[in-house]
UniProtKB/TrEMBL annotation:
GO terms for molecular function: FMN binding; NAD(P)H dehydrogenase (quinone) activity. Gene3D superfamilies: 3.40.50.360. The lineage of its organism: Bacteria, Pseudomonadati, Acidobacteriota, Terriglobia, Terriglobales. Residues 5-191 form the Flavodoxin-like domain. This is Flavodoxin/nitric oxide synthase.
């Protein structure tokens, strides 16, 4: 069965972007059509200029992926949301996109879609798990069937979390490890498999 997966993420230096690419790889290997989208920044150019590379990375990612739209969310059978940790919580940029979905939420357009989350932090114990769990709340309100990674694949015994793929950049934009990416690929595949089952159940 054909499955559409939207991966909507925010990434400032490219770490969460790399996890998104891993999830997309796993999803495509499972037969899904994938749309990768990077949400817009919401801070001023003055603020971005204070962090080396922020503006350049932002422009590259928006040019490469484009921002997610409400139409992307309607198109998708499943959505993965990715975010860096911001003080133990979801980034404001990704949350702004989630908040924009109210118009289709009220129509029930997201009910029964598969949903999952992944993220990155700057330090060990930097808030990855609390951030992913904080994203479960709006997913539940929007009507998603939340798909955790659990320990359903051997990769989860080496990296990630039972809530979603994770990475630690050690405040140096260190890229995800191969173990991190193995979890991301599994998460993409698992989300597609659940989305396919849900879609089939709706059609039968």
């Amino acid at each position: 069965m054909s499955v559409n997966l939207l991966i909507a993420f925010y990434s400032r230096g490219g770490v969460t972007e790399t996890l998104a690419l891993g999830a997309a790889e796993g999803a495509r290997a499972a037969g899904a059509e994938v749309r990768l989208r990077r949400v817009h920044d919401i801070v001023s150019e003055e603020i971005k200029a204070k962090v080396s590379g922020w503006k350049e990375h932002s422009e590259r990612m928006i040019a490469t992926y484009g921002p997610p739209t409400v139409e992307d969310a309607v198109w998708a059978d499943g959505i993965l949301f990715g975010t860096p940790t911001r003080f133990g919580n979801v980034s404001a940029e990704l949350k702004a996109f989630i908040d924009s979905l109210g118009g289709i939420w009220v129509k029930g357009a997201l009910n029964g879609k598969a949903g999952g989350v992944f993220g990155s932090s700057g330090t060990i114990h930097g808030g990855n798990e609390s951030t992913l769990l904080s994203l479960y709340h709006p997913l539940a309100h929007l009507g998603f069937i939340i798909v955790p990674t659990g320990y359903a694949d051997p990769s989860l015994f080496k990296a990630g979390s039972p809530y979603g793929a994770t990475s630690v950049s050690y405040n140096k934009d260190a890229p995800p490890t191969e173990d991190d990416l193995a979890v991301a690929r599994f998460q993409g595949r698992r989300t597609v498999e659940v989305a396919a089952a849900l879609k089939s159940a709706k059609q039968s």
